[in-house]
Design a protein that fits this description.
The protein has 106 residues and is mainly alpha-helical. The chain is built from 3 helices and 2 strands, in the order αβαβα.
Length: 106
């Protein structure tokens, strides 16, 4: 499940140690997220596995997931393709709120 890939993984960006997520089940937390979700995954990540993203999508079919080739755990959002993916998601996610606001103003 979520957090499973942390076990035994040594990453200098995770100073708490490789076992800090042992025994923690985050699926109940994931189930409570009610806003639109965008999952960004580096294809080379050993932390957020492809199987975990697949399960996230199975549990929440509306989730958008984008995988970036040649990227580790957390995409840095410094390249144009990564920035555009987030910009496009936020623009789509904001559209219903803008439409509602425009209708209230009319």
């Amino acid at each position: 499940g979520i957090g499973r890939a942390f076990h035994g993984h040594r990453d200098p960006e995770l100073p708490l140690g490789p076992d800090f997520m042992r025994g923690v089940d985050l699926w109940s937390t994931w189930e409570q997220v009610a806003c639109p979700q965008l999952v960004l995954r580096g294809a080379d990540s050993e932390v957020l596995t492809r199987e975990t993203v697949d399960e996230m999508k199975r549990r929440k079919p509306a989730v958008e997931a984008i995988e970036f080739a040649g990227v580790g755990h957390a995409p840095a959002l410094m390249s144009a393709d990564q920035i555009e993916a987030v910009r496009a998601f936020l623009t789509r996610a904001d559209a219903p709120a803008r439409e509602e606001s425009e209708q209230e103003s009319a």
